[in-house]
Amino acid sequence: MPLVTTTEMFKKAYHGGYAIGAFNVNNMETIQGIVEAGEETKSPLILQVSKGARDYANMVYLKKLVEAAVLTSSVPIALHLDHGDTFEICKQCVDDGFTSVMIDASKLPFEENIALSKRVVEYAHDHGVVVEAELGKLAGVEEHVSNKYGSYTNPAEVQEFVEKTGVDSLAIAIGTSHGAYKFKGEPKLRFDILEEIQQLIPDFPIVLHGSSSVPKAFVDMINSYGGNVAGAQGVPEEMLRKAATMSVCKINIDTDIRLACTAEIRKHLTEYPDHFDPRQYLKPARAAIKEMVKHKIINVLGSDGKA
Ligand code: G3H
Ligand code: 13P
Ligand code: ZN
User: Fold this and answer.
1) What is the C-alpha separation between 113 and 262, in angstroms, rounded?
2) Are 135 and 157 contacting, i.e. CB atoms less than 8 angstroms apart?
3) Is 177 close to ligand 1, i.e. is its CB under 6 Å away?
4) I need a labelling partner for 226 at 20 to 30 A (CA). Which of 30, 124, 218, 306 fits?
5) Mean of the pLDDT values across residues 144-159?
């Protein structure tokens, strides 16, 4: 099946009470692990490419690896630009055959965010590509909440933003953040804000960034095989499941892929100190990524059987 946009995926997910996993890809093993998991669970997938991924692997390699994955699988796959921060990078991805792009102008003032997002939408839509934008600020939200919404997404702004930009989905800030250290104390998401937004823009797909769960098993495994990721904490799975039954249609996962991969490689190299062929440790790492993604699809996202 050729690459698809997220339009159909989100429509079905919204009304079916589930979400599509958007998995960050950086190399062949990651792409294979994710796509095999999607294939075995019959789940649609979003593969997303960040600036870090492009710097690491080169856009041409990533695009060709995703093309290979699409050729060898039967589930719908969307190729998405993660956190595009300029019109130029969004345009380049549209021109390169991505089916979805994110323009992340969330650090700009409201009117400038609207203007840049709208410009990307006009170009992308002319080329059959869908656009995600962001309102609110993700990082460090807990530390400097000064009023009712602080740096969380202000529900009063979403309707105007969506109408003026014409975006196809909206990433919001309700307490998630990128990386392995998301909460200092008790994990907390502002479901009240999500609910308010859902009422204001019904039928509109919402995106959650920073949604890795940082499974304790991976953290313990990394720490017990010589690593040090003490104090890592993610978004509890039951919160993501709840969000998926609401208007959240896309859930972004990168950190959990990194943790699964690293835990397995650390274990392997400790158990087999004589191994030095990368295939010996990348094979179990790829299998660990696949199992982690299958678990997410079935137990968290609920997208199994929806391909
Ligand atoms: O949005 C953050 C993603 O985890 C991508 O991170 O830019 O290090 O690849 P990266
Ligand atoms: P995590 O760091 O929680 O995996 O979030 C990834 C993400 O939001 C990519 O855009
Ligand atoms: Zn993100």
Assistant:
1) 36
2) yes
3) no
4) 30
5) 79
Place of tokens 């790492």: 285
Residue 104 Cβ contacting ligand 2 at under 6 Å: no
Which strand (E) or helix (H) includes residue 23? strand 20-24
| Closest residue to atom 1 of ligand 2, CA basis | 210
Q: 56: which 2 tokens?
A: 């690491």
Q: Residue of the nearest CA to atom 8 in ligand 1?
A: 52
Place of tokens 């039951």: 238
| Ligand 1 atom 7: residue of nearest CA | 52
Relative to the CA of 255, which ligand 2 atom is closest? 4
**0.85 exceeded by pTM:** yes
Residue 24, ligand 1, Cβ within 6 A: yes
Write out pLDDT tens, residues 80-131. 999 999 999 999 999 999 999 999 999 999 999 999 999 999 999 999 999 9
Task: List active site positions.
Answer: 82
Residues near 219 by Cβ (< 8 Å), separated by ≥ 6?
180, 229, 232, 259
DSSP string, 183-251: -SSS----HHHHHHHHHHSTT--EEE-S-----HHHHHHHHHTT---TT-B---HHHHHHHHHTTEEEE
Q: What is the bridge-based pairing of β-strands 130-135 and 45-49?
A: unpaired
* 276 CA from centroid of ligand 2 (Å): 31
- 256-291 pLDDT, tens digit per residue, is 999 999 999 999 999 999 999 999 999 999 999 999
Distance 23 CA to ligand 2 centre (A): 8
Sign of CA dihedral 133, 135, 137, 138: negative
CB-side exposure of 16: number of CA atoms within 13 Å? 17
Q: Is 211 in the pocket of ligand 2 (CB under 6 A)?
A: yes
Closest C-alpha among 183, 168, 171 to residue 209: 171
Which of 30, 178, 182, 261 to mutate for ligand 1's pocket (most ligand atoms within 8 Å of CB)? Answer: 178
